[in-house]
Design a protein that fits this description.
By secondary structure, this protein is mostly helical. It has one domain. It is about 70% helix and about 0% strand. It has 15 helices and no strands. The protein is globular and about 60 Å long.
């Protein structure tokens, strides 16, 4: 059974890098994991979150841009909101599962710091209010703030998808909202905090850029070399900041008191401009130097990451749970054998979840194709809609 989706029009670069982002999220969330030292966040002014959001926008643009042309705004917006609801349900399920996992581990192992670090200690102090706030997405424990952002971005997309007919207008509205955040710190309210950890009013700009790259791709400039050089310089600056300046307090202090302080200002919540330009520079170089039909994307060694990227929701949720188990294991033994064990088990666990999700999807499609129909009209309609559903399924 073919678990990885291949087609002439499918861009496996998106699946591969989305899978890589999911792997980075897993490694970065485990304190003491040696593989976390070689993730994107150590060498650039951006990390897996930017990769994930940009590609989420790209996937949404591919999936729903075609539907907008075929079925109009109301039907397409309803489909987007249905996807937002799926993400919301997944987040609530993950919240319950992760809360049970952390609180049980904290009690069994007498590690109260688990509750404090994950911000789940309020479950004991004010359980009824905390559950209500979690349902309203105003209470987001540590590690559980990406899916609420994704839900908010999909709702924003549903409200603005009609502007895809005028891409420049959509870009202008999105950029204006981003500027408002930069100057006013506009954010959604959170329980016990000033706002969401990932400000959706800021991050929507990166999401919309991904949408527009899918639905209204820019023409390649006649002379792309200057942009190549600018992108490389931007990434080199990020590498210097992350590997040279930030680890040395005296350099960090000098930069903090100089006009260059914006280079070392960490504002992940509001997606500060250097994070934004870093991920765009990285995207430009990937598009320029990795061909759409690159043979290595269909190779066996790339297949695991492609599989993860094509089943991102299941893999992300499973990765959060597996990551906490790996953290507990490393606290008892952080030597090389345990490092190998937690990363191999995490990799195989996430691949297994991706394969299971792909198998269910493949099985359901086969049942749909083989199901008896009441009339020839119904059969023809189902056949006509099937390719659209296949293309729309972005994992």
């Amino acid at each position: 059974m073919q678990l990885i989706r291949h087609s002439a029009s499918r861009d496996l670069r998106v699946d591969f890098f989305r899978g890589l982002a999911l792997w980075w999220i897993y490694t970065d969330h485990i304190p003491g994991n040696v593989l976390a030292q070689i993730s994107l966040r150590n060498f650039a002014l951006c990390d897996a979150t930017e990769v994930f959001v940009l590609l989420a926008g790209y996937g949404a643009g591919l999936s729903y841009g075609m539907r907008l042309r075929a079925h109009g705004y109301v039907s397409t917006a309803a489909d987007v909101l249905r996807r937002a609801w799926t993400l919301y349900v997944a987040h609530i399920f993950l919240f319950v599962l992760f809360s049970a996992q952390v609180t049980y581990s904290a009690t069994l192992l007498n590690r109260i710091n688990y509750l404090e670090e994950s911000r789940l200690d309020v479950l004991g102090d004010d359980p009824y209010r905390s559950i209500l706030e979690a349902v309203l997405l105003r209470f987001q424990p540590s590690l559980l703030n990406i899916l609420p952002l994704y839900v908010a971005l999909m709702v924003f997309f549903a409200l603005t998808i009609w502007l895809l007919r005028w891409p420049r207008v959509l870009f202008g509205v999105s950029f204006a909202l981003y500027l408002v955040v930069r100057f006013t710190s506009l954010n959604l309210g959170a329980w016990g905090d000033e706002g969401w950890f990932f400000d959706p009013f800021a991050w929507q700009f990166l999401f919309v850029i991904g949408v527009l790259l899918a639905c209204a791709p820019m023409r390649m400039p006649r002379y792309p070399r200057p942009l190549d050089v600018a992108a490389v310089v931007m990434l080199l600056i990020g590498a210097v900041v992350m590997t040279v300046i930030l680890p040395q307090p005296h350099l960090l202090e000098w930069f903090s008191s100089s006009p260059l302080r914006l280079l070392v200002t960490e504002d992940k919540t509001g997606l500060y401009p250097f994070r934004l330009t870093s991920i765009l520079a990285l995207t430009w170089l990937c598009v320029r130097f990795i061909r759409f039909d690159a043979s290595w994307l269909r190779s066996r060694w790339a297949a695991p990451l492609v599989l993860l990227g094509q089943n991102s929701l299941s893999v992300f949720c499973g990765g959060i749970v597996l990551g906490f188990v790996a953290r507990i294991a490393l606290e008892y033994d952080d030597h090389l054998p345990m490092q190998v064990a937690i990363n191999l088990s995490g990799a195989f666990g996430m691949i297994g979840l991706g394969a299971l999700a792909a198998w269910y999807r493949t099985k359901d499609r086969k049942l749909t194709r083989g199901a008896p129909t009441a009339s020839s009209t119904t059969s023809a309609t189902a056949t006509a809609l099937l390719p659209l559903n296949v293309r729309a399924d972005t994992g």
